[in-house]
Amino acid sequence: MQINILNDFINSYKKAYINNYDDSFSGKIKTICQNLNEPFMNLSPELSKELQEISFSLDKNINIAIIGQFSSGKSSLLNLILKKECLPTGFVPVTFKPTFLHYAKEYFLRVEFEDASDLITDVENLALYTDQRNEIKKAKNLHIFAPIPLLKKITLIDTPGLNANKNDTLTTLSELKNIHAAIWLSLIDNAGKKSEEEVIRENLEILGDYSICVLNQKDKLNQQELDNILNYVKKNFSQYFKDIIAISCKEAQFQESYKHSNFEFLIHFLQSIDDKKVKEKFAKRKIFNLCKILDNENKLFLDIFDQLLLNFQTYEEYANSVFERFLNEIEILNHQILNQLKSISEKISSEIFNSIKEKEAYFYQKSTKILTKNLYVKYAYKIPYISTDDTYLSMFYHSESMSKEFKKIKNDIYHSFKQIKDNLVNLVNNLENKILFFKSEFSNIQKDNIFQSDINFSELRVFSNASEEYFLKDFKELLFKNLLELDLFFEKLNLKAFSNYENATRLTISFLSDKINQSRVLYELNSSEFTLFYPQKNEIYERVLKELNVYEFENLLIDKPVIIKIIKDFFKNNKILIENKKHLIEIKKRELDKRKSQIIKSCELLKE
């Protein structure tokens, strides 16, 4: 059952995305469209539609737009081609919607409205939909059909004048994106101006290789003036157009002056266009432009992920650079702590030693002499004595110097521990600042071209907004774990050593007193065999070390240093996390590399 489902999925995928086309230009275009429409490319609906339209355009007429300023004679020129006064002319901007000229066996008009409805009517009604002074239902496009053989392979587009009004200019620029070539129409006495060249240069992409510049109203000039104008315009505009000619629409209206109007040259130019070659160049240009958009988007995303990767690389380098310094500082701290503990022990042992006094003591023992055989003899001797209360009060209550000194040592060690923790926090904060900056920079990124991928930008926004979860959470958890271990060790050190000095003193005195008393008992039993215990300074010191747990901490600080182990574990796990995050970024980059390969593959196919 599961195998059948998998096979059905594979077959459906092949049917939807894998077709084998021939090696013709049309086949290559379809192959490119198929390649770019692979699911992993995440194309926008607009780009998918554009690819489809490019593919379909190979089987349609070529589109040639008539572009010019208001009153340059565009409508008059097209009426001459149509051999009928279809398009209205006037001294106000009347053509306010793009008008498409198609071939048909008879004249008629089709009106496309903004509400997606349309209307078939007589071509004489065109003025109702072109005169800006009329209040009519809002039309989107106008289509004139005429029995003109030239229109069998060419669709002409009458555009609003570039200087008619702001809305018409925007409409013009929008329509120009789908043309194969253009007739750039200028009034001959205004031709070649810098302002006109600026408009041409802004729209070089849409002019292609088969556009022609036509200078209208040559009838206003004598031959010398005409030659001068043509030479001037060719000098400035020849780089933009396949040819530059001068015509007279006025002369072309009359049979006797038609030949002199040079209008036949324009008709011949249009008739001689190799429509197959033009369509192929148009398709190539459009697809190259789309591939450029995709490639730029891909480069943008690669730059973003490279920047993120660089953040981790610099963080890793910084962590590596401070690691040895961390260990050296901690090693110094470990010896400092141990020395402080020994210093405390030395002070306590000295105070205890100085507090040892002697007191008179005696005991009774049967006489061994014959004359006093049944009598007890009193023996007096001196015994060492430590007053626990007096010594304790003297050290810690009657004088605050020792307490203050111990508290200062404890405070210094606390700040040393805090510095270690702050160093770790600052290390992770260094990464956190980079990730938060990445999040703020890209969490609301928007595409700036309609053909860019909605999915890719949406996923990047989601990815950026989740960057703390992806890239910071693990590091913060690691930091919290290691800070907690440091706190626990400091608390242990504090409880068993630095806050334990009073108790260690009391226990040491108690131990020594017990030992003195035990030696006294033995001495009184047999003074010739046993001696009294007199505490020596080194013995007191050793006992204080034991009661302060110094030997235990010597093992934890020097022999098997706990703090160094905590720090090493942090840096080890930190490095593992860095590698994991870099791997996650590399996965994203591999997706982009896959898209890049598909884009390059499509462009290479066009170059064959």
Indicate the structural class.
alpha/beta
CA-CA gap between termini: 45 Å
| Spatial extent as radius of gyration | 49 Å
The amount of beta strand, in percent, is 5-15%
The beta-strand count equals 11
- How does the overall form come out from the CA principal axes? rod-shaped
Which regions contain 5 or more consecutive residues with pLDDT less than 50?
none
The residue-averaged pLDDT reads 87
Helix content class: 55-70%
Task: State the helix count.
Answer: 22
How does the major sheet shape up? 9 strands, mixed
Neighbour order of strands in the largest sheet: 4-3-5-2-6-1-7-8-9
Would you summarize the structure shown here?
With 608 residues, the protein is of the alpha/beta class. The chain contains 22 helices and eleven strands.
Describe the fold and architecture.
The chain has about 600 residues and is of the alpha/beta class. It is about 60% helix and about 10% strand. The chain has helices at about 1-15, 25-35, 45-55, 75-80, 125-130, 165-175, 195-200, 205, 225-235, 250, 255-260, 265-270, 275-355, 390-395, 400-440, 455-465, 465-470, 475-500, 500-525, 535-545, 550-560, 560-605, and strands spanning about 60-70, 100-105, 110-115, 120, 140-145, 155-160, 180-185, 210-215, 245, 355-365, 375-385. The strands form two sheets. Strands 4-3-5-2-6-1-7-8-9 form a nine-stranded mixed β-sheet, sandwiched between helices. A hairpin with a 4-residue loop joins strand 3 (about 110-115) and strand 4 (about 120). Helix 13 (about 275-355) runs antiparallel to helix 22 (about 560-605) and helix 18 (about 475-500) packs antiparallel against helix 22 (about 560-605). The relative contact order is 0.09.
